[in-house]
Amino acid sequence: MAVLSHFRPCTFWKLIVILVLATILLQAWHMMMLFQLESMVKDKSSSGESQNQSFPDKNDTPQGQIQETGESIESLIKKMWEKVTTANVLDKSGSYVVIDNILEESNSKKDHTQDVTIVTQCSSNHLHHLLTLSKTWNGPISVSVFTHDQDTQFAIYTIAYLIACVKNISKQVLFHIAFPVKNSPLPFDLHDFTVSCNDRIDTFQSKSKHLNYAVEGLEYPNNLLRNIATQAAKTSFVFIVDIDTLPSPEMRMSFNVFIKRHKQFMNSSSPIAFVVPSFEVNSQVDVSSIHTKTDLKKVWNDSKVRPFYFELCWKCQRYTDYEQWGLLPDFDFLEIGYFVDWEDPWEPFFIARKSDLPLYDERFKQYGFNRISQVCESYVKGFRFAVLNNAFLLHHGFKVPGNFHSKKEEEQNRNRQLFREFKKELKLKYPMSDRSC
């Protein structure tokens, strides 16, 4: 009995040690297989893909990207102008003419179901951001362009230039146009000035002086533009961002691998928002040096990078929990870092299944509460918010008070009142939901 009683505890602890070692070995094997899977996808995607990223000024066109892609600029301009002059589709308010995919036969006609589309919108004088965005993302992009009056000429010229001269854009980007009924495009002479792929983009884009929110008598319909671009996306997932931001290199590729690993997210009845932490980058920083989370943390520690809207509205972003995100292990693959309970007024940027997303409320125009309206409704609808461990979004330049158009506060106050009414309406729209915002 003495021998038996001594033997059993020893055997028990040996089994525990063996199980612990086996668990460690299985985890190591799992990590190795994930790394190999990631590497295989990188190898398949690396052909012709550049890792350099920057935020070019419109006067600094990266000429290495410029090469004729096929159809002439003049031919593209004629096709688009014909579309504009014959357009008859209005938005639901009847205030805007909408042209979905102004060049149907060009680019992105493939149905990349298992992929992510960047969805964005802008006025014509911000289209130059697509030069770098398309290069960094290296995948499908859907962009809605707001134009009006004589600005339409510059919008059309710019789109034609980008498609005819930039390979990434001709293959990846779908363009859509919206303009006010009361400010319809003005006719122009095709030969007012000529454009070629030898020109820099500022040659003609600088002729357009109109900013998103500062055109007298016009309201910039940001939510309408987002909806147009979202509905036109041909992929299962969408990532709705501002056109002057850049995703981290390889985010698209890493996310696609992540979804293949977690197929339950493709068909889950529980919608989920994959949150991408967003940052502002000091304008003196060479953004092309920020490839990885490790790179980002170095400049973050030097106070050359900070969380998005840090000065303007910290409470709008702080629930991302940047401190926790920075402490996550720096794996080479994408994974969920942690979940966050949504709280007002958090408005994260996130990737989500297109079929799950509620459309934006198009009553919100100009500045304030336009983006959060969709985040709020997503939460009430039942979305969970999962912060991704390695992905990030960069905005060039710190956002500071005072760098906005003169009517910003007036517009924000008006939209604040609309947002209060909007939240009441959500209670009627989702009567079975126990959530409110």
TrEMBL record:
<comment type="similarity">
    <text>Belongs to the glycosyltransferase 49 family.</text>
</comment>
<protein>
    <recommendedName>
        <fullName>Beta-1,4-glucuronyltransferase 1</fullName>
    </recommendedName>
</protein>
<dbReference type="InterPro" id="IPR043189">
    <property type="entry name" value="B4GAT1"/>
</dbReference>
<keyword id="KW-0328">Glycosyltransferase</keyword>
<keyword id="KW-0808">Transferase</keyword>
<keyword id="KW-0333">Golgi apparatus</keyword>
<feature type="transmembrane region" description="Helical">
    <location>
        <begin position="12"/>
        <end position="35"/>
    </location>
</feature>
<keyword id="KW-0472">Membrane</keyword>
<keyword id="KW-1133">Transmembrane helix</keyword>
<feature type="compositionally biased region" description="Polar residues">
    <location>
        <begin position="47"/>
        <end position="65"/>
    </location>
</feature>
<dbReference type="InterPro" id="IPR029044">
    <property type="entry name" value="Nucleotide-diphossugar_trans"/>
</dbReference>
<dbReference type="GO" id="GO:0000139">
    <property type="term" value="C:Golgi membrane"/>
</dbReference>
<keyword id="KW-0464">Manganese</keyword>
<comment type="pathway">
    <text>Protein modification; protein glycosylation.</text>
</comment>
<dbReference type="GO" id="GO:0046872">
    <property type="term" value="F:metal ion binding"/>
</dbReference>
<keyword id="KW-0479">Metal-binding</keyword>
<keyword id="KW-0812">Transmembrane</keyword>
<feature type="region of interest" description="Disordered">
    <location>
        <begin position="45"/>
        <end position="65"/>
    </location>
</feature>
<keyword id="KW-0735">Signal-anchor</keyword>
<keyword id="KW-0325">Glycoprotein</keyword>
<dbReference type="GO" id="GO:0016757">
    <property type="term" value="F:glycosyltransferase activity"/>
</dbReference>
<dbReference type="Pfam" id="PF13896">
    <property type="entry name" value="Glyco_transf_49"/>
</dbReference>
